[in-house]
Fold this protein.
Amino acid sequence: MPLIRRPQPKQAASRSFEPSRSRVSSLDRLIFFSDGVHAIAITLLVLPITVPRVAEGDLGRALADNWREYFAYGLSFVVIGFYWLLHHRVFNFIVREDRVLVRLNLLLLACIAFLPFPTAVLGEYGSNWAAVSAYAASIAATGLVWSALWWWASSGRRLIDDTLTDGEIRSRQVDGILTPIVFAASIPVAQIDPGAAEIMWLALIPLGAAVQRYYARDSRG
Amino acid sequence: MPLIRRPQPKQAASRSFEPSRSRVSSLDRLIFFSDGVHAIAITLLVLPITVPRVAEGDLGRALADNWREYFAYGLSFVVIGFYWLLHHRVFNFIVREDRVLVRLNLLLLACIAFLPFPTAVLGEYGSNWAAVSAYAASIAATGLVWSALWWWASSGRRLIDDTLTDGEIRSRQVDGILTPIVFAASIPVAQIDPGAAEIMWLALIPLGAAVQRYYARDSRG
Amino acid sequence: MPLIRRPQPKQAASRSFEPSRSRVSSLDRLIFFSDGVHAIAITLLVLPITVPRVAEGDLGRALADNWREYFAYGLSFVVIGFYWLLHHRVFNFIVREDRVLVRLNLLLLACIAFLPFPTAVLGEYGSNWAAVSAYAASIAATGLVWSALWWWASSGRRLIDDTLTDGEIRSRQVDGILTPIVFAASIPVAQIDPGAAEIMWLALIPLGAAVQRYYARDSRG
Amino acid sequence: MPLIRRPQPKQAASRSFEPSRSRVSSLDRLIFFSDGVHAIAITLLVLPITVPRVAEGDLGRALADNWREYFAYGLSFVVIGFYWLLHHRVFNFIVREDRVLVRLNLLLLACIAFLPFPTAVLGEYGSNWAAVSAYAASIAATGLVWSALWWWASSGRRLIDDTLTDGEIRSRQVDGILTPIVFAASIPVAQIDPGAAEIMWLALIPLGAAVQRYYARDSRG
């Protein structure tokens, strides 16, 4: 009955009935808000791609020369998409919130929502060491906050349920620290050879495989 | 009872009760996220429309001269709206997710979220062959990813339920490949006559009719 | 039981169980998408407000001179907020969707999502007749689409339930046409005196009162 | 049964069944819309951070010189995050809506959605008195609207349930007025010493502690 929205004038005035009380739990609002920030950040990635201002005849070449911006767009789309999938997965196991989780989640969102900026720098400057380092640092910071969030939620099963075994919890703690390590390690490399640092990021592919293993585990129960 | 959000301190500490566990399914989060990206991308289409910088007296004419940007806005609004409707329809039949679906869906969103860029190029350069080709290529890519997604979900009824007959599944597979074919075919045409390529896009109208047929089928059961 | 998201590996493979089927109805997705577009458009209104580029000492005055942009922001916030409230109200009575409703709703969203552009023009040019006319035309178009949507949904109770009396339906049809009439009528006025046209928009206040009457009616049942 | 979305052709035509009626309550739509505006505003904060246009070799230094923009981003992220948490908390207790609440909430959202602008000014001009004052005034206005909203909802338990004691309601009324007072008081200080005004904002930390106390109270029941 509370699923029906039709106005119920008499009961609505009485306090024992709550026809309009929200049925969205606090944890659901946290998840919706996080999904929203991920969705907006991932969609804003397109904004810094610049429309070339050239003579009509040169537009084709100018669009092709833009390739660094498309690469940065694609890379950051994969990164934010990967973190969204991780959020999606991890919050499947979280059954309670506390104020540390809420704050770590906000800090995580601050990192995610910041990514369009280093992406724009990378798209503009390409294999410049400062651009590559700024990008790697942003993603390493995001990964560190993720690890902290998962560590907080999972250690001693503080906020998670019994679905996962202890071994699975530990293995996810290890997996989660991989991204920040790879990206942090690429910063000194970028001082010497920015292209080599970008190649290190291809470590995203084994990380993608790690996410695949997450899914595989879930389907096995 | 789990519909009531009122804090229940004692049970909350016990692990057998889950008063704050999210009730949003994984597939629902996928759908919300996709709706969010579509909604954001469609609303960002307005941002590249430039406020003219002219003398006060010339504003009327300058706003009218902007018509190419309004046309590009309207066209991309129809395109993203069409793809959102398709998402809306197709996910009505999807009852399970797997990791391929999740990734194809992210790839699709990357295409949708990219559309404001070729739209801005088209609005700026109009019937330039490079602008027309870039726009057509973006939409053809989006349509190809859609076809892949539907093919993956529907072949062998991998992720869909029994609502659709085999004939309906096949007919949707054919419908879905129409948009990318029309837009891909318009690319070589644009090399010769960009205006003719834009006229080909009026093939959107029969495609709209195809969506109508989708709805008609649904109402017949 | 379907409210619990815990993976249920064996049943998930069987077709008769649907543990992950979305529970979001098609009409709900339409409403979420519409809420999303309204929320994004209303938040994008801030983007065209320009950060002054002046000497440090002149910043205070430059910020104050920006008042036209703040006025345009506030005005459009009220307008989009008003239309969102109307959407909120009207979709309370809509119990079915059809493809005309879906398309009229998309057309409405195209109007709403376009509003940041005329707002930016108005903020930049102020009481210029072309800026005032473009703004008024955009809002008149939005209002016309709204009237069409409500007329379609309500005539012959095509898509609405029995909550409203025939008199209430007609009175809402009249109310809905008020905004486009006021804004359309302000366009010729703006050719002569743009300030007078803006004063006509204060007709928003009686319109606000009309929304109040909507609420009053609902609370009476 | 209404949880199943499968098309039910015959009943759909009959008026006594409502297979597609939305199950989202009016208060839930208000909350979703508010979450959306908070999420968008917090994510738009990144847009004004400017990609430096310098020689390749100077990029590292130019990115470092950008620190005021990162500071403004972080500060406003904390502020909007704080207000979102407050919304999250307060709407836990609100069980009814009325038109004053809906309008105060819209006014609040207008304040929140405006924050990216003073943030951009602060990021661009830093410790300029006008920039600091504009920022403080925006946040003070946001806080005042919040206080009005909470006062309206809670006085005489107009829109809230019985979960809170009278003492808790009053203590939240006091807490809520703290932010606007601190920020308003920093405006005259900024005329003399803008840096001192920014230090006053560190009063955000005790405010954060106040939110902690909110949570502590909830967990005690």
